[in-house]
Amino acid sequence: MRVQCSQCGTRFNLDERLITRDVVKVRCSRCHHVFEVMRPQGTPGLLEDDQALVSPAPEGGEDTATSGLAATPPEGPPEPEPIPLPARSAASNKERARRVALLATVAGCLLGLLVGTLTLWYFGEKASLSSSPAPKERPEESQRPPLPAAGPEELKNLEIELRDARYRGLVHPKGGQLLVIEGAVKNLTGEPRGPILLKATLMDPMNQPIQELLFYSGTSLSDEELRQTDPEKIKRWLNTPGGRQGVKMIKPNQSQVFTGVFFGVPDNLAEARHGFHIVVLKAPRLPVD
């Protein structure tokens, strides 16, 4: 019988008796395409291993058999003969599915075993931690526990009385142009507070901070002292709780003066319209005797 490759169109002569199954697969020797060939009805097979050897048919004339198997082209070297590929049987597909199912089952068992082991370890550690005795607390060294620091709401009762800021004519030989913020903080909380820590922030025209100053209340300075006192000494007063006066406690309804000093501010501070704001940062409670 004559068969033709469905990919490249090459024709082959194939002995019908070599087809031992209803459908066999053959591979084209030219383009290597694999296609199926059906056995004609009523044709007996000769081979038991389902392999058929075919070769391309001559381009012209009638097909002639060679050694009773196939025809070869009259010109040129013979083409490699395609070998039909046996179709995969249903039994092999079932075997493959059975192996895949077995591997999936084994993998599931191993995963379940791992999860179970981790779960037992987790609950065992948790039980051991809960059953262990709690550490003993160290006894307080002081008979009186420390008072909590004042929160933001309580700081609102510390009123700031601000005076006009001064900077014109206040130039220090070492510290440059000075900006001095003066005022007083009044305790309206109804309980002793102190020492009072303040924060002043110098702002630019876009209301962005350009310099911050943290200092304690309790310091007052004259213009002459601002011009002649060493800047490091002034900074030590401002960084000392209670300030230059050394008074750390402000009783209810009492006030304490403060002075904040910025060193090296721009010469055209007023023309540049720089501003500042000041807030109470800390005001710890003090025990009542």
Automatic annotation (TrEMBL):
Entry superkingdom: Bacteria
Annotated Pro residues bias: 74-85
Domain called Zinc finger/thioredoxin putative: residue spans: 1-35
Keyword Membrane in record: yes
Region entry Disordered, spans: 45-91, 129-154
Keywords: Membrane, Transmembrane, Transmembrane helix
Protein name (Swiss-Prot/TrEMBL): DUF3426 domain-containing protein
